[in-house]
Specification:
Elements (H helix, E strand, L loop, with lengths): L2 H25 L6 E4 L2 E8 L8 H4 L3 H21 L3 H24 L2 E9 L2 E2 L5 H16 L2 H8 L2
Antiparallel strand pairs: 1-2, 2-3, 3-4
Helix pairs in contact: 1-4, 3-4, 4-5
Amino acid sequence: MNPWKLAVLGVLAFAVDQTTKSAALAQLVQAVPVPVSPGFNLTLGFNEGASFGMLSGVMAGKPWAMVVLTGAITLGLAVLALRARNPWEAAGFALVVGGSLGNIVDRLRQGAVTDFLDFYWRDWHWPAFNMADTAIFIGAGLVLISALPALRKTDQHA
């Protein structure tokens, strides 16, 4: 895939993430849910750990450690995006990189990642997340799907 197209895709994921986080920070009050529909609230929160709050206890108060760790991983994934032969794989890596950069900017700016998307069922809430996490999830899905044998066979003929 063309490196410029990959860059545009990553920048788009980053821009959507940062724009929605700015709106959440401006309009929401921390831990005060705003009902949107049954099963979905907008609820402002901050995550000092990895995705979905993993490692939050270990990484609390250490935003630079998370920046260095995720920055190194993001750089490696950017290289994989540029080397990928399958366009779905390359697009997937570009989305992961864009989302990861969005979360890195949050850590640099405020020491934690802004989360605000709150899905739930009755009293059970999925960990709050954001559009960067969504881009990372979709990107990882594309990378996995691109590894399917049927897609690999068509890629080899390109």
